[in-house]
Amino acid sequence: MTPTRANKGQPALSLQQFIQRGQVILMYRKYMRLTKQIPDKPSRREMREWIRGDFDRYRSESDPRRIEVLLAQASRQYKNMESGMFPIQ
User: Fold this and answer.
1) Model pLDDT, residue 43
2) What residue spans define the domains of the chain?
3) Tens-place pLDDT, residues 27-53
4) How far apart are CA 61 and CA 68, in angstroms?
5) How far is residue 36's CA from residue 87's CA, in Å, rounded to a whole number?
6) Count of beta carbons in the 10 Å neighbourhood of residue 30
């Protein structure tokens, strides 16, 4: 298999890694969409920076079990934020 431009020099992802990557991206997008409900722009920007920093902190994680744990934690935290922090519109 010939590497594409996007992954030259990087090994191909396994199916599990590919699926987990998609789950992480989906979770990140959900968090960012949730911040749209914050009416105060400086607070919204601060929350987005916090979310970005949190996701960046674990960017190099490669252990599939650890990634599953992190995704589960992110999901629980998202549900808490969604139900308690922001009003549902």
Assistant:
1) 92
2) 24-82
3) 999 999 999 988 899 999 999 999 999
4) 11
5) 11
6) 13
